[in-house]
Specification:
By secondary structure, the protein is mostly helical. It has 2 domains: 10-89, no CATH class; 100-144. The chain contains 5 helices and 3 strands; from the N terminus they run αβββαααα. It has helices at residues 10-20, 75-81, 91-147, 152-155, 158-161; strands spanning 29-34, 40-44, 54-58. The N and C termini lie far apart (113 Å). Pfam families: NDUFA12. Belongs to the complex I NDUFA12 subunit family. This is NADH dehydrogenase [ubiquinone] 1 alpha subcomplex subunit.
Length: 168
Amino acid sequence: MDPLEKLVPLSKRLFYKWKALRTVPFRSQFFVGYDLSGNTYWEFTMDRNFQNLRRKIQPHHRKEFTVDYYKNIPPQWHQWLRFVRNNPPTIQELLADKHRQEAIKELAKRSDEKWEMEKLQLEGQTNAHLKEELDKIEQARRKAAETAVPHRSQTEEPIRKASLKPRR
């Protein structure tokens, strides 16, 4: 099944095949390929000199700002646009890269879950250790309170003990 079947209708795909033919005379723009978003990529010449071909993208959906088009260009097509690679990427190459990215996202998700579980386990161990330490401190305080000898001032009532003397 062609992944572009839903994005690009058959009539448009046939039109693009015709536009990809380089043997048609007086043609200055040639279709090169699609990406998985439905964007089309073209080579063109300004002066009919086929030694200096330029490359461009025509987005599938128009956006308000042209800068936004470059956010979702696959790296393979970006390399082709910048003349880093000579041959345009194939649909199979783009699909393989998409599956690779999904696998990496799944592995990252699993890794995040693993680290979160380890973090919770470590926090649980730390909280249990702190609770044990606090219990020990509380027991030591109780033991100290039980064995402590009360001070004399605590047993006597301060009001009865006080003697008021008039001032001279």
